[in-house]
């Protein structure tokens, strides 16, 4: 009898957890509406960007800040230039505090708070950087980012944001 | 004296000619001597160059603030559109300021712009607890705002009072000059321009005014205009006694 009730209890708990997990789905939590970017293809495959965009940006951040490397491929400014449409009327421009903004659309859904736009521009602006092929870096390739290594490093760091 | 100068100028022209020949391409994209500043975007900066600025105070006019306005426009600080509405004038951002000097004994006056002096041994970087203040290989002193915690030790350490702290939330920052609340900032020598082979905004504005009181260039290139000008008499660093070896030099003070 005791055994039975323990089992029942466990099942009930499991059911409760499952119910909690599926609740938003049942309630139909609105999926983010991700605005389409310019062009056909991002600088990396979509699934890679979804999982690793923060690593690319973080890597590029230090390269640019400390070593003056200004390739466009993984630059935050170029993310914005492609993914945030420029409104003709400045009053109608979508900013990072709106869930319609490309970055905010997903970050709102996943409850991720970023502070990039406390300093960085959240709307497209001319960078004045020399024209360069966006997808294929010139002069061979920029130092490639080992995604597996990068992911392992993040796991080690306990998934903490830097 | 005048004879010496003629000889020197002859030598300079000769050296200049030789270096110009050295810069000629032997094949497309391959140079005998790498021309300073022409850095590909994917290459890191090196210590083969050291950027410096010469301020010719004899050409700097009292009342002209073209350099300050150009810096504000380029980097998005100050000006009528500034978001810093609650800060006092002393608290507000000041990347570059015009300073007026007057010798009390003789009454002689000077007007000059003062900004980050881009020291070889920057005290701001020495005292920074997080490594946010640092000196790039090419001599440009910067604040990495990603690691700046806003403690403002650097502001106290700087003998030139060249840094400021942002007290308020900002909006509409320039893409090339990210800046935000809780971080320290100062002149960057317009690093985004320098990396693209352009001169800082203040230098361009001064030339556009027809004054050319600001000369920017590579101090390690013996052929550059700034290297030639630094040899002149009356060129000095501010507070050279501190031994910081600033990259900014002043002529005529």
Could you walk me through the main structural features you see in this protein, from its secondary elements to its overall organization?
- The complex is a heterodimer of chains A (about 160) and B (about 250).
- With about 160 residues, chain A is mostly helical.
- Chain A is about 45% helix and about 0% strand.
- Chain A is built from five helices and no strands.
- The radius of gyration of chain A is 21 Å and the shape is globular.
- Residues about 130-145 of chain A have low confidence and may be disordered.
- Chain B is globular, with a radius of gyration of 19 Å.
- Residues about 15-35 of chain B have low confidence and may be disordered.
- Chain B has helices spanning about 1-20, 65-75, 125, 155, 190-195, 200-210, 225-230, and strands at about 25, 30, 50-55, 95-100, 110-115, 135, 140-145, 165, 185, 215-220, 235, 250.
- The longest helix of chain B has 21 residues, at about 1-20.
- In chain B, helix 2 (about 65-75) crosses helix 6 (about 200-210).
- Chain B has about 250 residues and is an alpha+beta fold.
- In chain B, strand 6 and strand 7 form a beta hairpin.
- The chains are: A mainly alpha (about 160), B alpha+beta (about 250).
- The interface of A and B includes residues 67, 128 and 142 of A.
Strand segment count of chain A: 0
Q: What's the overall geometry of chain A? A: globular
Q: For the largest interface in this structure, which chains are involved and how many residues does each contribute?
A: A-B, 29 and 33 residues
Percent range of helical residues of chain A: 40-55%
Number of helices of chain B: 7
Largest sheet of chain B: 4 strands, mixed
**From the structure provided, what is the oligomeric state, counting identical versus distinct chains?**
heterodimer
Could you give the order of the helices and strands of chain A?
A: HHHHH
**Average of per-residue pLDDT values of chain B:** 89
Strand coverage percent of chain B: 15-25%
Principal-axis shape of chain B equals globular
Poorly predicted runs of 5 or more residues of chain B: 15-37
Give helix % range of chain B. 10-25%
Classify the beta-strand content of chain A into a percent band. under 5%
């Amino acid at each position: 009898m005791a055994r039975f009730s323990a089992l029942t209890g466990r099942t009930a708990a499991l059911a409760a957890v499952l119910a909690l997990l599926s609740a938003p789905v049942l309630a139909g939590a609105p999926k983010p509406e991700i605005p389409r970017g310019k062009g056909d293809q991002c600088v990396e495959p979509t699934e890679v960007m979804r999982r690793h965009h923060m690593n690319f940006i973080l890597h590029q951040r230090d390269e640019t800040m400390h070593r003056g490397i200004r390739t466009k491929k993984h630059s935050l400014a170029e993310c914005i230039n492609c993914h945030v449409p420029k409104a003709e009327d400045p009053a109608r421009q979508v900013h990072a505090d709106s869930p319609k903004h490309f970055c905010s659309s997903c970050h709102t859904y996943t409850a991720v708070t970023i502070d990039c736009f406390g300093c960085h521009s959240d709307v497209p602006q001319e960078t004045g950087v020399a024209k360069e092929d966006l997808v294929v870096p010139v002069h061979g390739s920029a130092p490639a980012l080992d995604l597996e290594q990068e992911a392992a490093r993040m796991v080690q760091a306990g998934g903490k944001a830097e | 004296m005048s004879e010496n100068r003629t000889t020197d100028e002859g030598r300079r022209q000769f050296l200049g000619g030789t270096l110009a020949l050295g810069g000629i391409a032997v094949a497309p994209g391959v140079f005998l001597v790498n021309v300073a500043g022409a850095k590909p975007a994917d290459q890191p900066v090196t210590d083969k160059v050291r950027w410096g600025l010469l301020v010719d105070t004899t050409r700097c006019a009292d009342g002209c603030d073209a350099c300050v306005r150009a810096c504000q426009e380029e980097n998005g600080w100050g000006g009528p559109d500034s978001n810093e509405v609650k800060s006092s004038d002393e608290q507000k951002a000041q990347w570059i300021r015009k300073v007026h000097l007057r010798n009390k004994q003789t009454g002689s006056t000077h007007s000059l712009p003062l900004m980050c002096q881009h020291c070889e041994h920057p005290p701001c970087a020495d005292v920074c607890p997080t490594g946010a203040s640092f000196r790039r290989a090419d001599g440009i002193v910067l604040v990495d705002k990603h690691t700046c915690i806003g403690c403002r030790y650097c502001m106290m350490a700087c003998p030139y009072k060249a840094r400021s702290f942002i007290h308020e939330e900002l909006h509409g920052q320039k893409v090339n000059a990210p800046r935000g609340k809780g971080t320290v900032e100062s002149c960057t020598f317009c690093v985004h321009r320098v990396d693209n082979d352009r001169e800082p905004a203040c230098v361009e504005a001064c030339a556009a005014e027809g004054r050319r009181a600001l000369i920017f260039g590579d101090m390690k290139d013996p052929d550059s205009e700034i290297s030639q000008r630094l040899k002149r008499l009356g060129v000095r660093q501010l507070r050279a006694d501190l031994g910081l070896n600033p990259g900014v030099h002043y002529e005529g003070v």
